[in-house]
Amino acid sequence: MVASALAIRLKEKGHSVGLLDLDFTSPSSHVILGIEGLYPEEEYGIIPPLAHGLRYMSITYYSQDEPAPLRGADTSNAIIEILAVTLWGNLDYLIVDMPPGIGDATLDMIRLIKRILFLVVSTPSKVAYETVRKQIKLLHELDISTIGVVENMVMKPTTYVSERAGEDNTAYLGAINYDPTLEDALGCVELLKKTEFYGSIVDLTEKVG
Amino acid sequence: MVASALAIRLKEKGHSVGLLDLDFTSPSSHVILGIEGLYPEEEYGIIPPLAHGLRYMSITYYSQDEPAPLRGADTSNAIIEILAVTLWGNLDYLIVDMPPGIGDATLDMIRLIKRILFLVVSTPSKVAYETVRKQIKLLHELDISTIGVVENMVMKPTTYVSERAGEDNTAYLGAINYDPTLEDALGCVELLKKTEFYGSIVDLTEKVG
Fold first, then answer.
1. Residues from B in contact with A at Cβ < 8 Å
2. Best of A21, A22, A24, A26 to disrupt the B interface by mutation (most B CBs within 10 Å)?
3. Chain B nearest CA to A72, separation (Å)
4. DSSP states of B161-201 as a string?
């Protein structure tokens, strides 16, 4: 949700943006942005379709939204193929939606993309932050840049995540309130833009430049 | 959360229960149940410690809660090792907490455990159910038994998930309301048992027998 809205916002601000959904666990940007009937074209490579002005690519194009139980090695091969053949054109930003936690996809992206920046998304729950913390530790150990942590789905303000982010030497980028209207905006970018959630994404992009 | 509470409830009902946390994405049962300072013992195999009366094993014992970025093949090896060496004793139930979606861990468990039953947990969101649906489809295709779908973190009642479960020929086992008191119960089983969430798990175990 954060990746999709961020891509839409950066495009709205006049940037040239690509969105790549590599969330093997749960690819959902096509549901969130209502992308149907748009397919990549082949011409000396794969040209991603323009969806809401974004160059759009998703692993669902490889799995046709069928159950796609990819083994680790297949995940790596799929990522390498997508990165090798996709003709993104000139982009200011390529937003990549990654699966939660640390797995093959994350390790591959770190290995394959030299100029990568991580935006880490947590929920307010201790349980979620414990996972996020491991990811932050790993990124620090690998000397990979992190923009910071965003706290999503906040029901009531707490200081747990912001304090932990401080301990973990990571910028706390702010809270995004749980927005019950978001579910009804799924599939429609115009409705998405009117949500409180999107307002928080607008603030976030201002904050991180 | 569902797996941990389910194990506690089955134990409370007098069953002999093991809990195995294989959620490589986000192992958290030790945080939820407040399991600290308990470790497996080695004696012709690995004997899981008794935690709240449960035989308890977690992949965090293999990663020491450090960032453990396991590649797919390593995931398989870790699972095979845990299943091979752990001496569970006589159990009525072994509850296994799995990562979300379909990945190496799920495929391995299907391959390695003959008498496996899946309890599928979704949230009310379309986006979550889309992922769950793929998992259900795969389980059907592989002829693996599914107990049904539980809808967790329900903020306001909707019929979306129950209707989809019907379309997917899967039992809808009911809704578990979002329970804001759950966060403060993390780490303390006695508090957990007093939550509305735990009450829903009690109902669930009665329903599925």
1. 1, 24-26, 28, 31-32, 65-73, 75, 99-104, 106-107, 124-128, 130-131, 134-135, 137-138, 141, 155-156, 180, 183, 186
2. A26
3. 4
4. HHHHHHHTT--EEEEEE--TTHHHHTT-HHHHTTSHHHHHH
Contacts of B180 in chain A (CB under 8 A): 155-156
A78 and A70 Cβ atoms separated by less than 8 Å: yes
Predicted model pTM: 0.87
Distance from the Cα of B18 to chain A's closest Cα (Å) equals 21
Q: How far apart are CA B103 and CA B71, in angstroms?
A: 11
HSE on the CB side for B107, CA within 13 Å?
Answer: 14
**Residue A113 CB: number of other CB atoms within 10 A?**
14
pLDDT tens digit sequence for A119-154: 999 999 999 998 899 899 999 999 999 999 999 999
Rounded Cα–Cα distance for residues A134 and A145 (Å) = 15
Q: Do A26 and B101 touch (CB under 8 A)?
A: yes
* Nearest alpha-carbon partner for A78 in A139, A118, A21: A21
Give me the phi and psi of A56, to 5 degrees please: -120, 130
Cross-strand bridge partners of residue B96 = B20
Is residue A66 within 8 A of residue B137, CB to CB? The reply is: yes
Instruction: Kindly report, residue by residue over B115-151, the tens digit of the pLDDT.
Output: 999 999 999 999 999 889 989 999 999 999 999 999 9
For the beta carbon of residue B38, count every other beta carbon within 10 angstroms. Answer: 12
Amino acid at A93: Y
Which residues share a beta bridge with B122? B151
Cα–Cα dist B168/B194, whole Å: 34
Q: Choose the closest CB to A183 out of B31, B126, B186.
A: B126
**What are the structure tokens assigned to A67, written together?**
């159950």
